[in-house]
């Protein structure tokens, strides 16, 4: 099945001539959009904030922030002043210098963004941390990166083991009751009185920007370092993929503790001078729909799990809100099930556009562009200027329709520049010094669309048949009783592996033998006999990362009674 492309909109760079652009694209054309192309003086915070504050966009809203207690907006000009104050505050109360690592460990709030961009103005490398991290996760990251400073709140301070982190000099605390003493600085006390003028620290385009820790399949989380130059791809994909225009109100639901929340929560929209919504607090279907209605969101970037949770909340709820401003909906982080695409088309009257990328790629890599017909279930086509291919384990390119390693030719603009403190690990990602190997398996069809199959180690071999867990999960999700599904291969002496499904039920359904049989038949009928799970186990909730991926390795560990490994990226 194919879903037709959206009609052309005049004057917008929509990639209607994708093939032509993809063939010859030269990133220097994009470099010319930045002030550093002429001056050589680079800083993300200048391009994302100050440049607009000093232009016609001065009084345009950069940030709408809302949570249970606050509902605020800041123009680009106000953002410039607040981030200058933050930069002065950080500078005057520490020994921090260009290139030093500073972590941000706090819930979303306007101050988080003032401080993040204040730190960037100082030329620091920012390490965002998700607020649900516990002490061990904090320790590993700060220790590995020799962090000199952390920004946190009095409530979260007990999870920062500063006694065990000798390099950690300064703790900046954002909150009401701050006991200020040597090395503990009260941000809210100093922010209003800090100067709103600041001389930006000019950097080179290869200097550090953000350090995102992410889990691999083995070992401790690794620090993925991105360079300032990532902005080139983050900016341009904002145009091609997110379809930014001057009047858009954009909402990316990801937390800045994860790469989506930095690259596309703030960098991409602000590089493009686009108004961004940040919603604090927790997920709730009503709260989310209300945010779209209240802010008049036009472009919405979220994740399959969120869409599935909204789906589970029922279609009646959607009708209680005016979502008519929405014109473009996108997804990232895990496979977007065709079922969800169809649901989106039905309730929002919008096709959900899947995008594929990962922490290491630094920016969107394979996407469904507004101008392009969607094949539900496909991630789309590579971002122009990038070469993406399916390669075998030796790094040889495979022909269409053959499954293999999803790989990207080294040297794309937003590519990670280092695994912090671990050059050997960094090198291990590349084959033939040419291909970055993603760890995902996929195939490309004759028309150049890429189809995700699973993480390399997730594909199931059962009775000699190759089964992608995603296919089975997608089918399971079409069953009316199922809200969430995760599928693993369970070792079996006869069949190699059998398929085991873990499922969470929609409210109102109860586990029973009849239901198990019904689900099994449903998959058998809908997909294939060999794809039907031999075992089905009911769970209240499935383990997921914050970016929404079902953590199959945790399901597998439960099943086989093995240690679950690093859980620091797990939601809650
Ligand atoms: O397995 C792929 C999956 O998420 C992985 C990257 O995770 P992370 O670094 O946390 O970044 C998430 C958001 C940028 C990939 O290796 N993934 C991401 N997007 C998709 C996806 N799987 C299927 N379809 C996608 N669109």
From TrEMBL:
Source species, domain of life: Bacteria
Xref: PANTHER family: ACETYL-COENZYME A SYNTHETASE, ACETYL-COENZYME A SYNTHETASE 1
GO molecular function per UniProt: acetate-CoA ligase activity
Gene name tied to this protein: acsA
Protein name: acetate--CoA ligase
Keyword Hydrolase: no
Record Pfam families: AMP-binding, AMP-binding_C
Keyword annotations from UniProtKB, A to Z: Acetylation, ATP-binding, Ligase, Nucleotide-binding
């Amino acid at each position: 099945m194919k879903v037709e492309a959206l009609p052309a909109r005049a004057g917008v760079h929509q990639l209607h001539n994708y093939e032509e652009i993809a063939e010859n694209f030269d990133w220097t054309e994009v470099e010319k959009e930045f002030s550093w192309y002429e001056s050589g003086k680079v800083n993300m915070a200048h391009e994302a904030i100050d440049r607009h504050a000093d232009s016609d966009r001065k009084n345009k809203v950069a940030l709408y922030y809302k949570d249970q207690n606050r509902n605020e907006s800041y123009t680009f000009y106000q953002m410039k002043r607040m981030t200058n104050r933050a930069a002065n505050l950080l500078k005057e109360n520490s020994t921090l210098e260009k290139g030093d690592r500073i972590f941000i460990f706090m819930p979303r709030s306007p101050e988080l963004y003032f401080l993040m961009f204040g730190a960037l103005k100082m030329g620091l490398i920012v390490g965002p941390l998700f607020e649900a991290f516990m002490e061990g996760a904090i320790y590993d990251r700060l220790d590995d990166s020799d962090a000199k400073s952390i920004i946190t709140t009095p409530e979260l301070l007990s999870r920062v083991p500063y006694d065990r982190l000798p390099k950690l000099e300064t703790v900046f605390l954002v909150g009401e009751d701050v006991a200020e003493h040597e090395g503990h600085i009260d941000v809210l006390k100093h922010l209003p009185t800090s100067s709103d003028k600041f001389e930006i620290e000019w950097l080179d385009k290869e200097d550090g920007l953000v350090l995102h820790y992410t889990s691999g399949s083995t070992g401790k989380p690794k620090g993925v370092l991105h360079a300032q130059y990532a902005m080139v791809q983050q900016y341009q994909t904002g145009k091609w993929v997110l379809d930014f225009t001057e009047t858009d109100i954009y909402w990316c639901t990801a937390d800045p503790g994860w790469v989506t929340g930095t690259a596309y929560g703030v960098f991409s929209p602000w590089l493009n001078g686009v108004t961004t919504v940040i919603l604090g607090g927790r997920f709730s279907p009503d709260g989310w729909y209300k945010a779209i209605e209240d802010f008049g969101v036009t472009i919405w970037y979220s994740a399959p799990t969120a869409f599935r949770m909204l789906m589970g909340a029922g279609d009646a709820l959607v009708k209680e809100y005016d979502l008519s401003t929405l014109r473009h909906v996108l997804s990232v982080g895990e496979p977007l099930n065709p079922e969800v695409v169809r649901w989106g088309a039905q309730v929002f009257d919008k096709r959900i556009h899947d995008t594929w990328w990962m922490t290491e790629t630094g920016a969107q890599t394979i996407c469904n562009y507004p101008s392009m017909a969607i094949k539900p279930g496909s991630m789309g086509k590579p971002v122009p200027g990038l070469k993406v291919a399916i390669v075998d384990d030796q790094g040889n390119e495979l022909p269409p329709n053959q499954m293999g390693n999803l790989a990207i030719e080294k040297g794309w603009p937003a590519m990670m520049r280092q695994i912090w403190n671990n050059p050997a690990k960094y090198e291990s990602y590349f084959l033939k010094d040419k291909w970055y190997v993603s760890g995902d398996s996929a195939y490309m069809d004759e028309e150049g669309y890429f189809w995700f199959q699973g993480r390399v180690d997730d594909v199931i071999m059962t009775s000699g048949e190759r089964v992608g867990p995603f296919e089975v999960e997608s089918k399971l999700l079409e069953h009316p009783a199922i809200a969430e599904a995760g599928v693993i291969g369970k070792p079996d002496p006869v069949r190699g592996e059998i398929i085991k499904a873990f499922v969470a039920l929609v409210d109102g359904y109860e586990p029973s033998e009849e239901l198990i049989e019904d689900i099994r038949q449903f998959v058998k009928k809908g997909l294939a006999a060999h794809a039907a799970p031999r075992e089905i186990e009911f769970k209240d909730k499935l383990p997921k990362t914050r970016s929404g991926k079902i953590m199959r390795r945790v399901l597998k560990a439960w099943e086989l009674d093995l240690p679950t490994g690093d859980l620091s990226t797990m939601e809650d």
